[in-house]
Write a structure and sequence with these properties.
The protein is α+β, with helices and mostly antiparallel strands. The protein has 11 helices and 25 strands. Among the domains are: about 1-85, no CATH class; about 90-190, Nuclear Transport Factor 2, Chain: A (Roll); about 310-425, Glucose Permease (Domain IIA) (Distorted Sandwich). Helix 6 packs antiparallel against helix 7 (about 120-130). The structure holds zinc ion (ZN). Zinc ion binds near residues 330, 332, 334 and 413.
Length: about 475
Amino acid sequence: MLSLLTRALGVQWPTRIGPTRIGPIGIAAIAALLSISAYDAEAKSPWFKSIPWFESNWHRGPIAADLEAELGTLHYATAPGIAAVALEAEARPATVSRSLRVERGDTLMGMLVKAGIKRQEAHDAITALSKVYSPRKLKPGQEIRLRLTASGAAGPDHRLLALSLQPNVERDLRVSRTGAGGFAAESIERPLLRLAVSADGTIENNLSNAARRAGLPMPVLVEMIRIFSFDVDFQRELQPGDSFEVLYEALFEEDGSLAKTENVLYASLTLSGRRLDMYGFTPKSGVDDFFDPEGQSVRKTLMRTPVDGARLSSRFGMRRHPILGYSRMHQGIDFAAPRGTPIYAAGDGVIESAGRNGAYGKYVRIRHNATYKTAYGHMSRIAKRARRGQRVRQGQVIGYVGSTGRSTGPHLHYEVLRQGRQVNPLKIKLPSGEKLKGKNLESFHARREQIDILRELARQGDTLMARADCLLPAAAAGTPDGGAC
Ligand SMILES: [Zn+2]
């Protein structure tokens, strides 16, 4: 087995998942499979046959075939996280599997009874589950899987054998019958693999199309826009031929499918040949931020676009008012966005006004410092934590796009006030954020080097792995944790 593993580690495994490059999942997945310990006498055929990981084309080849042959002799063993899969594949005619979906207002008890399980049985299973998970945390849409005895499948004689659910991507919960007739619950950490993923693309017509072609998940695109929203006016500055690169952390299932995206580690935009590189870093202050290669924070005192994915629909200056019908000064800028789109505080500050305000409709004004204030109008709703007198952080949600007050459709009316007077938000020169110094700057440089290595590894994903947890330990500039890698 060991020699096989050595060979496996030496081999080049092509792993391209869609247009996004990732490092091979194979090696770590093998490590996970080799560490199997649980014994499942019920599985009668090689359990790995039911794991899509072994079925996928990119692992087919002499090595994979060898591994199958080798692992075939271990067919009685199964990894804890895979037990459920194996069991389902093995479901004998005597049992049936059912999947329930939590609806609003459902209780687990109610759902189980409705599924034909006797009240006492349901109660015992829920009591066991409660030791690892509170059933009150169930959310609408969540899936609960049951294994039942098949006798009288439609009638009241169902006997619950097992219940499983996945409260989050990292964990499986399983309640199964014990020999004594009761139930026991276990919480199984799912063997997910954290990898750094690199994606890049060139803009043909717009950023979201380019992002889709590059296989960039939506949360990563949104985060990238936020990172650059201080420096880039996405409406006016983005041209065909401009390009982007992003490196982000993501958790993958054993079959190579994406379980969850996590932090963006690095983002780069090239606009008309001008390249902007931004590295994620947490300085001693503990506030996550993005910095240019010299350690200058991207954060400005104010964001240019305090709402995601919005289209600038009306500029600052004289215009014919759409409702009043005559020309007047437009004291801010308008961003068209769907009703309910979150609006962010453009900078740190204190809420000076929050509530209805005539033609502005539902309105919030933030005082940032002695010079600047920002104001937000026509909201559908003001966030609960955006009350008068409250402190807000830059990027905190203060309300949601709407069309209250004198407005023709859902949009954010955004004003920047300097010394109490409205100025053009697109024209003001904003003081920049923190510049890293001393120990912070040293740590940042070390982090930047780690990220650059990861970028390179992820980009060459055909041959090398980019295990994010190996190269990027939690501490900003600590040493890689050799034990786990
Ligand atoms: Zn307006």
